[in-house]
Design goal:
heterodimer, A: 112 residues, mainly beta, seven-stranded mixed sheet, globular, B: 112 residues, six-stranded mixed sheet, 11 strands
């Protein structure tokens, strides 16, 4: 049983560019959350998707957007990249009932 | 808003016991979770406390006091592989969804 998978694992962009990160949830999970983790910090909640809709959003600007597909996979898009967007982006899935989060290994984004 | 406080670093000797404390301030508190993250790895779930008291899972135990807004993670019989960052995370319910707010993490170093 595959866990949460994310792609790409590493990527480098320049300021002003756009990036798309992808996530496949653990089998049987229908809820996907995205987190940003800066170096030496805890993960910060970006947003959560359920039934293809954004269910809750953290304190992130509109440059951060997402999508969930009918197969529950998800994308995170970041437009007009800033140097401060450099971080590890973590995807986490969970079943619709309350429970623990299962995290992927993350996509490490470097903005130059 | 929500805030969590935990020590930034802890060092302990192999075979010993270590306690990592977490205090929180939040509205609509639902429960306290603990996650472990090795350098370069994904956060992995350790425990969840919704009610006051102690939860034990093998060498790890977690405690919650809702009246004191306080919890701790207890690691016994420390092993070198326990060297990692440990995050407490508060779960609160809002707008019908579930979001985890993470602390900044405690870096545990286990020494021989």
């Amino acid at each position: 049983d595959a866990g949460v998978t994310q792609s790409p694992t590493h990527l480098i962009k320049t300021r002003g560019q756009q990036v798309t990160l992808r996530c496949s949830p653990k089998s049987g999970h229908d809820t996907v959350s995205w987190y940003q983790q800066a170096l030496g910090q805890g993960p910060q909640f970006i947003f959560q998707y359920y039934e293809e809709e954004e269910r809750q959003r953290g304190n992130f600007p509109d440059r951060f957007s997402g999508h969930q597909f009918p197969n529950y996979s998800s994308e995170l898009n970041v437009n007009a990249l800033l140097l401060g967007d450099s971080a590890l982006y973590l995807c986490a899935s969970s079943p619709s009932s309350p429970g623990e989060l299962f995290f992927g290994e993350g996509s490490r984004l470097t903005v130059l | 808003g929500q805030s969590l406080e935990q020590p930034s670093e802890v060092t302990a000797v192999e075979g010993a016991i270590v306690q990592i404390n977490c205090t929180y301030q939040t509205s609509g508190f639902y429960g306290l979770s603990w996650y472990q993250q090795h350098d370069g790895g994904a956060p992995t779930f350790l425990s969840y406390n919704a009610l006051d008291g102690l939860e034990e899972t093998g060498r790890f135990s977690s405690f919650l006091s809702r009246s004191d807004s306080y919890g701790y993670l207890l690691l016994q019989e420390l092993q070198m592989k326990d060297s990692a960052s440990y995050f407490c995370a508060v779960r609160f319910e809002g707008a019908g969804s579930y979001q985890l707010t993470f602390g900044k993490g405690t870096k545990l170093s286990v020494i021989p």
